[in-house]
Amino acid sequence: MARGWRLPERPSRVARRVLARVDGELVTQAFEPAWEELRATMIVTTRRGVLARAWRRLRFEVQTILLALACVRLQREHEGGRRRKGRSIMNRWLRDVVYGVRALRRRPVFTLVATLTLALGIGATTAIFSVVNAVLLRPLPFPLSSRLVTMDIMGPQGYPVSLSLPNHQDWRERSRALETLAGYAGWNMRRQMDAGVDIVRAHIIIGDFFETLGVAPLLGRWIAAAETEPGAAPVVVLSHGLWQRDYGGARDVLNEQIVLDGLTYSIVGVMPERFGFPDHEPTVWVPMGTDDGLPWDDRASSFGARPIGRLAAGMTVAAAQQDMDRITRGIEEEAGRPVASTHVYTLSEHVRGSARTPALLLMGAVAFVLLIAGANVANLLLARGEDRRRELAVRKALGAGRRDIARQLAVESLLLALAGTLAGVILATAGVSLIRTWVPLPPLIARFVGIDGVVLLFTAALGALVGIVFGVVPALRAAGTHAGGALRAGGRGLVGAGGQRVRAALVVTEVALALVLVVGSGLMLATLNRLRTTDAGFDAAHLITARVTPSLVANPSRERWLGFYDGVLERLQAETGVQSAAAMLLVPLARRSWERLVQPEGVPFDPREGESVLYNVVTTDYFRTLDVAVVRGREFNDRDTNESPPVTIIDDTMAEMFWPGEDPIGKRIAFEQAETSTPDNPVPVYRTVVGVVRNVRHYELRSAARMQAYVSFHQALRHWGSALFVAVRTRPGAGEFAERLRSIVHDVDRNAPVAAIRSVESYIADDLAEERALGGLLSAFGLLALGLAGVGVFGVMSLLVGARLPEIGLRMAVGARPVQVLRMVLGRTLLLAGAGAVLGLVAAASLSRLMRAFLYQIGPLDLRVYAGSAAFLLVIAGGAALAPALRAARVDPVSTLRQET
Amino acid sequence: MKLPDLSHLQFAVLAELLGAERSGGMMRGALKRYRVRQSGPAFYQMMARLEGSGLVEGWYAKQTVEGQVIKERWYRITGDGRRAWRASRRFYEQTIEAADGEGLAPA
Question: What is the ipTM of this complex?
């Protein structure tokens, strides 16, 4: 025998380099047995001596290389002589893909778990990215939309005001930066039809509205700027939705007449389906008119008209702002007093509104979920790589290079990522449907939330990134496997210390990321809970409201208007199951407001001056019906009529603001002018304060409304004719009342439209929609993260226990008790989870500040939320490690040690 | 009459395995009778294909010689292999009979 020279266990470096060009399968099938045969031949050679040994060694090396070259020849023959590199690379990749598919199919459980994990991460990320794409990336659906701007107008009293006709005229005439300037205000109009009257959503426009937005009509023409001047012939443009709904899409609709609020309009155009502004609901656009019920002439009014404009070519928003500031200064100099100022910004910013921050927040949260899912898959790949150490070591020993093995493993992880991406897109499609119904999105944007080309491109890139990032570490580790060591390990799959460290780090990271999400969802849920239990100043239980409009279009009169509502309320009060009923101009949290300037008696009356207060016209039982507490004085009563002295009830905020420390009862304030007023001689109508009530949260539950003032329905001067809301508080157990309400209204006026029948609780739910959606999504992501982290902990601890079974067996053989083993495994788990929790708490503390704007009555560093979240996570981690720990505690030391020997 | 599925070389290889299990080295030695000049890798690739087709089974046998482990690839014919070999043999027999006696039979 070749004493002094042992046959090598693997081919020489030169041979391995030659074999690196050969497909791994061919190496296994053709080279390995031929080389083993050569080894066997060499070992039985009997000649001895130094020279003979050297000669034998040389022959062995040369023949090994010749065998390798023969393999290369075989491969080339197999490839049909195609030697072009590109084709060869393609073939190599194709082979890797085929091999990878086979390898994944051989381990279906691993493949399924890894694919599902990735699908959850990628699906959630894709669904949220579809929102980010619509909210932040996609341009508004108008030509050259980056040139569209809007303005917030600040009145000289320091309150926001609407666009008025005088302001519009001033700005349009003087602006150099704006090519066009228009405005719009939402309104409900009564439409006279043969069958009666219904309510139509309308947007009253001023100036070059359609030209500004730049979308051509489907039929007919736009409303020209000249047609929005006072005295122009009434014309109307229909939205595509209304045209389809009410006219069946008839193309001969042009020049048809439509009677809105008693005025006959001519239909001059229909807009295309893709056009909607400010939203895509069915609507009509009508020009501003002198009798449309909106105070267009009032520079100080805040009825909701908003300007929109198009920047002239080459102009920027900053230039437009400077231009508007210049105009404001000029008008102030001419008028000799402060006038409204403006803040110019893009229409895109206005439309996207507050959706930007939550969208980014959710994107950040879902990125955490993706990272956790990726870490789990990396863990699985690492574990699998260690399972396959022997297989990979054999391939390496037979000449496959690190690059070949790394490429093969990378292809496998990319295949997994592809499967995860495809499954993720399916999950995302379902997620997008949920988001559309669940998440409050800006109306103009909501319809663009979906899986489009950009989203698919993002998802494909994400899948590839996940495949590469989370597949590379396991691939490099596996590729670096030392052949001899792995072969000597005999396929027992021992876990190296390096592998343990990497996986422990992954678990710590997973726990930390999950904790950040759990803290985030905890803060939002606490916010939601506090908002739900906050005192809104009224009681929403068993309270339903409806907008009820008398059909007095043709010949309205104050008496008929009053009589209609009195009749409806009288019937409602007599109804069994009704506790109380009232009518009002505004319902709390219904996103409608009416503000008026108010001045106390004692200062010179100027209709353009004063404080802005929320102004509501209410019937006698309003406070009782809504359960608003009367703090001082009295409620309205039947003696408050048009003939009695005008009175008002104010809220405690206004009382404190106007008369701090004094009794406001008996004080007098003015909201409006008498009919005898002239522009030169305004005559105020002073109303005596007869009661003080608690502030009602009108705009949002989060904060108290600005000052509120109430006027008795029977003493309303200007607002007779408006549609009022009717509120009914039913007795508990009274059941569904909507149809009964409609029937009672129609008993009084069979043509009266009854719309928006809703419970006040549903308005509260709408107000909390953003918090609910944010809290819900963060909680869902938090739970997902917890689940994934739990799976990660389980996987790592199972592997760890598996690797340490001999050691555990030995410990038990020398006297360790099962409970001590249990404690050891759980202790190790809690150590890892504890490290993750510490990191997570630090990360949460720094990141939760981004949530400050969404929180209510809770700080971003709330100790209870942080402690509760960390404790919850540790329990989950401990629970996940319980099964491996019990397995360790039940180890039979005898059989374990026998296996080792 | 269907053409045989086996090449001449495969036919010869299976014939070698009909009697007993053989190592790769033994097979290659035996094939020298037929003046087959194949490299080791080419031979073992052919055997791998026969294994892939289920006609033979292969395995590594280990032995220790003076403290060193060596491995050899051994093969045995399977049931499918025997059937394929017999089918080929029938083809050759019938072809010879047809050529000797009545000429080639119509297809």
Answer: 0.87
